[in-house]
Amino acid sequence: MNNAGPNSLAKRLGIAVLLATVVATSQRPVWGDPAPPSAKDRNIAVTFTALLRKEHISRRPLDREIYSRTVTQFIKMLDPAKVYFYQSDVDGFHARQDEVAKVARGDVQFAHEMFRVFLGRLDQRIKLVDQLLAMQHDFTVDERYVVDRDAVQFPKDEAEAFERWRQRIKYDLLVLKADRLEKEKKAKKEAKPDSPEVQTPPGPPENEDPVGKLRRRYSSFAKRMHQVDSEELLEMYLTALSSSFDPHTSYMSPSTLENFDIQMGLKLEGIGAALRMEDEYTTVQEIIAGGPAFLDKRLKKGDRIVGVGQNADGPIEDVVNMKLNDVVKKIRGPAGSVVRLEVMPAHSQQKTIIQLTRAKIELKNSEARAKVFEEGARPDGRPYKIGVIDLPSFYMDMAAARAGRRDFKSTTRDVRKILDDFNRQGVDALVLDLRRNGGGSLQEAISLTGLFLGDGPVVQVKDSDGQVRTYNDHDGSMAWRGPMIVLISKFSASASEILAGAIQDYRRGLIVGDHATHGKGTVQSLMDLGEQLFRNPFATKYGALKVTVQQFYRPNGDSTQQRGVLSDIELPSLTTHLDVAEGDLDHPIPFDRVPPAEFRPFASVNPALIDQLKKRSMERCAQSAEFEKVRRDIARYKQQKERKWVPLEERKFLEERAELNADKEEEKRLEEVDGPGATDIKKDYYLGEVFAIAVDYLKLLGVAPAPQAAQAATPKDR
């Protein structure tokens, strides 16, 4: 076996990335209306297909199974709920599935033809929606709406489509009514008894009747579908093809690649606002701390951007019903340039112009963040210090790294600074929170793990030719020598699993959280198609192929693929039971093993110690009112998952919704603690139990001595 460091790996693969799918499927919420395939589309398709066949770890050809999978994946992208196409449409597409082979010659016409059928069916259904919304619905009838789309087929004819849409609209109306009742209940609860009634200014349609709201919602959706452009359609089609090889191989259009670079580098140039689509409006979801919008203070969460103008005197362009990606492109721009936004506040129709100067923005909320808590009591009465690091991803500024800059943004650098500060403060134990960490840079995963192990094998990687290499962090220094807990969930994927697996194999610390991590054990390489086609790093932007090129393995030889890293101590959690793991995705690569690497484990963890900690934790959780709520949520979720339907009788529906809302305040509190945009780590019942485990751990270790084994944990060539 060859040994290699992360730098040589990055050079050999370009830049290797480890990404989880658990969030990827929601990053492209809107599509557009395509022009005919262009010469550029054909060049992209030819280059993409050639690289896919050459570089994918399976080395499998484009065969009839791949054609069938591609058609199925493309249909899922267009109509995941099975409400637009007829079964005859689907059968017709599969009868022509051999046309997928033409992609290798640059012919993507089949995708355009399938999309035209989709638009035709969409227009038919929108007319049907208008008809159904004009009807009187009987909400006293005992009927059921199947919400599990895997349990239904595409409608076979117009009558079946009508009936499915009748139930869908009835369900939508009940959901909106339940939401309105919940808001009214909350408003009454929060109202002060002696305060005058507050009049809500006129504005959209927050209190609009459900029929009007649904009509606007479906109309806006149809308009966005008709705005599809060839770039978005090509991205869907090529991703349908590549994800037929495995769920993590995809095509990134130029705009998606730009967003990916921003996500990995944690910086952008713009106004500093996260946006989303709500019906026909581009709505402010979050103001990013430190950005121009944050410093200006006029733009607020919930505001709707209805127009965008360039420079101080450029015309304002109407962006209502415009695709989100197109609006974002107009708002982003080089630092120092001016953009003007026409804005309607959340509860008003009054428009105002906000002029902002774009700037370079560091996405601080996505960086590693830390806090020290005082918990428990030592024999002398002093509290233990527990340091928490919340790490949302293994980020790295790939553009700066490709350019050869040595000071590029790095997870490892940021965490090392935090650990140095923890050491100065005399922190007793570390909690590394990876619960929302879906992966990132392989290089960062290796170097960050080395901060806790010193020198030694971190991960093993197998190429398509079967050759296995061991990758070490060659820095050799340990930034943290004390006891540690790695906190995981089913959303902890890829790079997170490399770190958690190594910590567990080395017996360096405890793994606590969900039953297991996500179970992604593959490595992706990002290949710029323009550079590949023209052999020029400054070539036309053609997007990139993100392709699975390797599998990774723990130091003990086990893959994490489809199995993940199992917790030493499992805490009750709804996410453990969600169908969001690698094995729940389409066409995952199978689990396998390689021989173990040579390493010497620490003495920080042993089975007897884990058993004691587990027993104490289970006793506390059994007595916890908060964890009892979690257990109720789990039971309710399992029941709903098993029955696959919801009642359409209003009384039963609202009763079930009221039961579901019983714990919503707790859920909201949790979102505020650690949700998007949170700038501080706050202790909740879950972290409270983790701290209790940490205190027990420290006491059982006698406040553990600094681990000594890492200096001898150097692997040998095999």
Description:
The chain is α+β, with helices and mostly antiparallel strands and 718 residues long. It folds into 3 domains: 22-189 and 204-246, no CATH class; 267-362, PDZ domain (Pdz3 Domain), CATH 2.30.42; 365-712, 2-enoyl-CoA Hydratase, Chain A, domain 1 (Alpha-Beta Complex). 40% of the residues lie in helices and 17% in strands. It contains 21 helices and 24 strands. Strands 1, 2, 4, 16, 17, 18, 21 and 22 form an 8-stranded mixed sheet that branches. A hairpin with a 5-residue loop joins strand 8 and strand 9 (316-318). Helix 14 packs parallel to helix 15. The chain is globular. The protein starts with a strand and ends in a 17-residue tail after the last helix.
Summarize the structure.
This protein folds into 3 domains: 211 residues, no CATH class; 96 residues, Pdz3 Domain, CATH 2.30.42; 348 residues, 2-enoyl-CoA Hydratase, Chain A, domain 1.
Number of domains: 3
Return the average pLDDT rounded to an integer.
Answer: 87
User: What fraction of residues sit in β-strands?
Assistant: 15-25%
CATH topology of the largest domain: 2-enoyl-CoA Hydratase, Chain A, domain 1
List the topology elements:
Blueprint: E1 2-4, H1 6-13, E2 16-19, H2 39-55, H3 64-78, H4 87-95, H5 109-133, E3 144-146, H6 158-190, H7 210-225, H8 230-242, E4 250-252, H9 254-265, E5 267-270, E6 273-278, E7 281-287, H10 292-296, E8 304-310, E9 316-318, H11 324-331, E10 338-344, E11 352-357, E12 359-362, E13 369-375, E14 384-390, H12 398-402, H13 411-425, E15 429-433, E16 439-441, H14 442-453, E17 457-462, E18 468-472, E19 484-488, H15 495-505, E20 510-513, E21 522-528, H16 529-534, E22 544-553, E23 569-570, H17 607-623, H18 625-643, E24 645-647, H19 650-661, H20 664-674, H21 685-701
Parallel strand pairs: 1-18, 14-15, 15-19, 19-20, 20-23
Antiparallel strand pairs: 2-16, 2-21, 3-24, 4-22, 5-12, 6-7, 7-8, 8-9, 8-10, 10-11, 13-14, 17-18, 17-22, 21-22
Helix pairs in contact: 1-14, 2-8, 3-8, 5-6, 5-7, 13-14, 14-15, 17-21
